[in-house]
Amino acid sequence: MARIVAVTGNEAVAEALKQINPDVCAAYPITPQTDMMQRFAGFVSDGKVKTEIILVESEHSSMSACIGASAAGGRVITATSSQGLALMWEMLFIASGLRLPIIMPVVNRALSAPLNIHGDHSDAMGARDAGWIQLWSENTQEAYDNTIQAFRIGEHMDIRLPVIICLDGFIISHSIERIEYIEDSDVRNFVGDFKAVNPLLDIRHPVSYGPLILPDYYMEFMRAHAEPMAKVPKVVLDVAKDFEKISGRKYGLFEAYRLDDAEIGLVILNSAAGTSKDVIDEFRNKGIKAGLLKPRLYRPFPYAEVGEALKHLKAVCVLDRADAFGGSFGPVFIDIAASLYPYKERPFLINKIYGLGGRDYLPEHAALVLDELAEIVKTGKVKTFKEYIGVRE
Amino acid sequence: MKLKGWKEVEPGAVIKEPGSAMKFKTGSWRSLKPRWIPENCINCLLCWIYCPDMAVKVKDGKREDFDYDYCKGCGICALECPGKKGKKAIVMEEEAK
Amino acid sequence: MATPLSLKELSKKEILFTPGHRMCAGCGAPIIVKMVLLAADYPVIASNATGCLEVSTCISDYTAWKIPWIHSAFENAAATISGVETMYRSLKKQGKINDEIKFISFGGDGGTYDIGFQSLSGAMERGHDMLYICYDNGAYMNTGIQRSSATPFGADTTTCPAGDVIPGKMQQRKDLTKIMAAHNIPYAAQASPSHWGDLMKKVRKALEIKGPKFMNVIAPCNRGWRSKTDDAITLSRLAVETCCWPLYEIENGNTKITFKPREKKPLVDFLKPQGRFKHLFTPENEWLLKEAQEQVDKNWERLLAEEACFAPKETKEKASKEQ
């Protein structure tokens, strides 16, 4: 029996973590994640979880402690945002390189400077090639569901990789939505027991973690790391199938919204997809064939599947909530362009940068973009490939 | 030695054979070689505790010869050896070919 | 039962750190590791900061460690082992593990005094049941002898070279042992491989105490100190006998000097055999030698005073009886 609740994104993810009941949690406060970990710390203080919590002195130590705890042989969580994720950067590669399935919600927030505590995706984008799996969530329900599924994905014996679950800072983390909680016992059965691989605590089989690897072998280890990454999409789909059985909710590698017969479409991550879908409905009502693709599994990126889903469109706009300085396009745009490159016939592709540092993304923004796409289809001409929307001149 | 391919390497580069460094012989680094002179040895075992390379063999509490597979010839043992009546039980000699 | 601290008895124990490691000939660090592991009569799990000890003992398929061991990065050996120790507590609490295991971190002075200082401070403050051991060779030896905050006053390193204008390092060492003791941890100590019994006794004592413990151990490096390959033990002994590296422990805030040289040797006895101090032995740099000696004297006097003030009760009673 599902429970209907009205909760914030942080509260829902903290609840999922409580239901999963991990062995160790390392936590360091950072806005807008803070409220998630302080809720979890409350569960520890009240004895609602068996978790031992490490209240570290920095995010660098947070990820370091997670690495030690995970290598020791148990289920480990932490959470962060923005500068915290940036400070962890060095350790992210080590967590994935050592093949440790640490689970980490990231409440997306802009990066300094200038200092800004509000939602954008520049934090997680900076970590997108760190060897972690990334699941992105449109709303509180998805953040809760993705958190639960992340354990099954990361801990899968063919995978054994750490997972980041993204949710938008403040827009989702601090807004109350009506969602469904799954029963504790269903969550526990779904996630199952943690299976340790090469645990340090097995003193009868001493292992060494973290050797120096010279040029004669380094590349083999890198190539070997790519292999479980390649297996992730299938595992994500298998886990989603099982998850549907306990939740009734369907998940894929991405969400395709009214895309099958669409001529123009948006590609957009996380909460802004919700706003966009409303506008797409309005366009459909006007007889314009608009659709949307919302990536869920962003790393590894399912290039072939995404390309297949978009190739029949005439014009597509990729909206990025993070810029990539240096004259290039936003990170999601680059991935979409790569997905479509193999096709001889492919849609026009444009890129908009929106919503940086918590700047509102409004329905009229989506409408403007869709109008522009319709114009491109009509004229066969693109005026500007990359543009900032919602910014004052 | 045939190098392993990427499908054969251990996930996460974890080493599952404790003490596998034993297969790596460091004796070839040596330019000076310690020689043990049992008649001057008082079995104090200082050479054993001070050796950085675990290259002094001891059996049942009794000093045995050096393990030249690993001895790097640093000479700590010879310098620290108290010897017997002013005569060292370890001397360093040029490594012969 | 604990193995008696006699070399004869200890030599019957398996050393859980093997030859075939690639530390330089005559390095002090592997001697320390060997003594630490021999002293421990418990199963030990160790973490290691990036550095000489780490890169030389675990390369590709070759590990010199026969205990579970983890290296993750340079600045986080303490944070990493704090994670291992916490998982141990969690699984023990859940009844999934029964072994009595001890947790030790090894780091050089760069990874401990400098870049790893914050993570060490954090782990000590949090109260993890662990022993952090710094092998202090007084510079970043692994990257080629660069100055650290543990480099002694006057020393020549590759980043504070003794030049025409600046005669080597112009700052005193950071007194890390005291800083660690100031975390109000139950045990902090200094040791030297020359005094193997003292070192091993301290390790043993530390492992019996619950909570965070810190040991700072002098680790001669003949490459960085520009000395001979055979003098690691001799030099560490001289460091103790000149009182520039006093052997002491601070247990629950009480200071106890564990070795007092009968005759305090002049600091030059320690400096002279080392090429890194060669430039101090010129007439124009005489003032530096004088200043270095004054620093040592002052620190030693302060330590004696601290012992007198804060010695454990028994020691005080014993001292008053002797008088």
Largest sheet of chain C: 8 strands, mixed
**Which H/E pattern describes the elements of chain B?**
EHEEHE
Give the overall pLDDT of chain C as a whole number. Answer: 96
Task: Give the helix tally of chain B.
Answer: 2
Q: How many β strands of chain C by DSSP?
A: 10
Biggest interface, and residues per chain? A-C, 44 and 48 residues
Overall number of structural domains of chain B:
1
- CATH topology tier name of chain B: Alpha-Beta Plaits
Give, in spatial order, the strands making up the sheet with the most strands of chain B.
1-4
Q: What shape does the CA trace of chain B take?
A: elongated
Arithmetic mean pLDDT of chain B: 97
State the name of the first-level CATH class of chain C. Answer: Alpha Beta
What is the name of the CATH architecture of chain B? 2-Layer Sandwich
Quaternary class = heterotrimer
Rg of chain B (C-alpha, Å): 18 Å
What is the CATH architecture assignment of chain C? 3-Layer(aba) Sandwich
Describe this structure in words.
The complex is a heterotrimer of chains A (393), B (97) and C (323). Chain A has 393 residues and is an alpha/beta fold. Chain A has helices spanning 9-20, 34-45, 59-73, 82-97, 122-126, 140-154, 184-191, 218-247, 272-285, 303-310, 331-340, 363-379, and strands at 3-7, 24-27, 52-55, 76-77, 103-108, 133-136, 163-168, 177-181, 208-209, 254-257, 264-268, 290-295, 297-299, 315-320, 348-353, 386-388. Chain A folds into two domains: 3-182 and 212-247, Rossmann fold, CATH 3.40.50; 255-388, Rossmann fold, CATH 3.40.50. Chain A is built from twelve helices and 16 strands. Chain C is α/β, with parallel strands linked by helices. Chain C has helices at 7-10, 29-39, 52-57, 77-93, 109-114, 117-126, 176-181, 196-208, 232-241, 268-271, 286-310, 313-322; strands spanning 44-48, 58-59, 62-63, 69-71, 102-108, 130-136, 187-191, 212-218, 247-251, 254-259. Chain C has an eight-stranded mixed β-sheet with strand order 4-1-5-6-8-7-9-10, sandwiched between helices. Chain C is globular. The interface between A and B is medium-sized, with 24 and 13 residues. Strand 9 (208-209) of chain A pairs parallel with strand 4 of chain C, so a sheet runs across the interface.
